Amino acid sequence: MRHTISVLVENKFGVLSRVSGLFSGRGYNIESLSVGETIDPNISIMTIVTSGDDQVIEQITKQLNKLIDVIKVVDLTEVDHVEREMILIKVAPKREDKAEVLRLVEIFRGKVVDSSPQTYTIEITGDEKKIEAFVELMKAFNIKEFVRTGKIAIAREGVK
Amino acid sequence: MKRTGAQIVIECLKREGVKHIFGYPGGVVLGIFDLLYDDKDIQLVLTRHEQGAVHAADGYARSTGRPGVVLVTSGPGATNTVTGIATAYMDSIPVIVLTGQVPTKLIGNDAFQEADIVGITRPCTKHNYLVKDVKDLARIMKEAFHIATTGRPGPVLIDLPKDVLGDKTTFHCPDKVTIRGYNPKYEGNRWMIKQAANEIQKAKRPVIIAGGGVVHSDASKELKELAELTEIPVIMTLMGLGVFPGTHRLSLGMPGMHGSYYANKAIQESDLLIAVGIRFDDRVTGRISSFAPKAKIIHIDIDPSSIRKNVRVDVPIVGDAKRVLKVLVEMLKEGGKVQWEAVRKAWLKQIEKWKQERPLSYEFDENIIKPQFVVEKIYELTKGKAIISTEVGQNQMWTAQFYKFDRPRTLLTSGGLGTMGYGFPAAMGAQVAHPDKIVIDIAGDGSFQMNIQELATCVTYKLPVKVAILNNMYLGMVRQWQELFYAERYSYSHLDTVPDFVKVAEAYGAVGLRATKPSEVEPVIKEALKVKDLPVVMDFIVDWKEKVFPMVPAGGSLDEMIFGEEKKEKKKLRAVK
Ligand SMILES: Cc1ncc(C[n+]2csc(CCOP(=O)(O)OP(=O)(O)O)c2C)c(N)n1
Ligand SMILES: [Mg+2]
Questions:
Q1: Global pTM?
Q2: I need a labelling partner for B142 at 20 to 30 A (CA). Which of A64, B176, B253, B517 fits?
Q3: How wide is the angle at C-alpha B282 spanned by C-alphas B280 and B284, nearest 5°?
Q4: Does A118 reach chain B within 8 Å, measured CB to CB?
């Protein structure tokens, strides 16, 4: 099963490689990983999406906790939480399709953040389903480039 | 007064009570070496290879319980420590490795003798540091010792760039370490311990398996109390040998691939396994799906990730073995008067029957030296009181089987990584810590050659380490597998050229002795034990055909032991990946 794990770490040199090395060294799989500083500049937060059976996930959590630079590990999958991901997608639709693309951006509450005579660059934020659905629709309009941030997630208040 | 980084390193080591460092010099650490030149409190033992230095520090640590310290230069000096570090890591041994590094400005430039040792050792240290500012140095030194020696111990590496060692700062060493991400849990959950006590009260065929964690937590006394109170037999993993007296009526010796028949039988038939400080290595469990099929499992370990990593666990207890066992024994005593002897009678009788059925044994021969005979004689002549190290291979397994360890920290052996070349330098480190004890490396002819250069170190420092080579002219354990599982195709396991070890010893200025007949074994050992100020190499020319039995073929279940009698069947056995 898929799990979204939030890892609070010391914002120190080498921490990312300790975490990613743990996954590769033990054969765990990372579907996405995003890192950033928190309000406290000494602390960073990583959101890792991984998959495995219960035993594997238990090991991942325990092994992460064992790292000296890891302060806290929360498996968000076990609690009610909000997940978001952002993508930037560059499409080059045919002239007659341009309006349709813009309409879809509207429906998905996305934004066109750059455009050229041939292309639109679109920003979409949402949960996985929404993003997948949007990307699926864009396939008809000649996708040129596509980047995604990986998931970030946060527990809903009151259920922690 | 301001001090240089190098001075701070030395000062911090002194504050940690360090008396010996094992090391090897080179460009970037000369600043530290210069201070050691006339230091009165710290002696550096100059090994002949950095790998030897780490194993020596490891042997020092295993035999004393105090951390061993290593000091080497950057680049090749640092990379030479990797096998030693990985060995210590797998067996949870506190070792502090100080490596020199090129100046901070040059890091990343492929400078002369630059190696990213922090990157290289990240997966085989408990933690490691690159010191970028001399102001952090004292704190890092303090943290390193703290991390290495607390919780589940392990090696910690500190990489010291040359400029940091030369930079000056006001020395300030914190008295306390606070690391928010590191808080080992020592007290076990009382409710869980109560569950364990209940299970013990209910169990009909319980057995204790004790491992290296019991050594680290110094819990032998508590373990013995538990076993004797409840009349539960005790099995010890390779890392645990000695935590419970091997000569005790309740001892069943070692389980697993080359464990005793009765230990493996007891596990497979038991209804309750009380595992203390073990990590259920595959060499111990055999095929997991058929491991201890009838047993509930209580698992006590300080490392939460050891629990449920390999086997299912019914009562998990995270905590320090000593404290948990203490509470457990108290609870069992409070639980009222149980007639443990009566309760246990049938089970102990069954175990006794297994012991009679298939004791650990070998066939003595008057004409050719059996390796097991050498181990037995060493046991006899040292009255079981020596510190024994081993290499890896058959020599290691025969030592585990035939030397009865009665006290913890008397067997030094590379269990997790299985590092050939470990035993001799480890023995050397133990001898530095215990100048008056008898320290013997029971070696293989292959393994000894992997760190044979340390003979020079032993001669220099007058360390009377004894090496007993079970010389079979083979990579014996490899040969054994080839005989049993690869249709006797001895691919590259014969050591065509084995040096004359007696002459090698003499060339180094050590004492060399040889025995070629069983009758010479005892005199040679006695002769060796008389030597007090030089290393001694005993070359025992043993029966090269001898194999280690019982054996559970890799991937087999603990019930599927072979005993070496089923010659006709052996062709049928196949290696299982
Ligand atoms: C550094 C290293 N390389 C390879 C091995 C694989 N290996 C395990 S036992 C063994 C043979 C050891 O030979 P020897 O030291 O003569 O011991 P014996 O088995 O003959 O007692 C080998 C090659 C190992 N354990 N360690
Ligand atoms: Mg050999």
A1: 0.96
A2: A64
A3: 65
A4: no
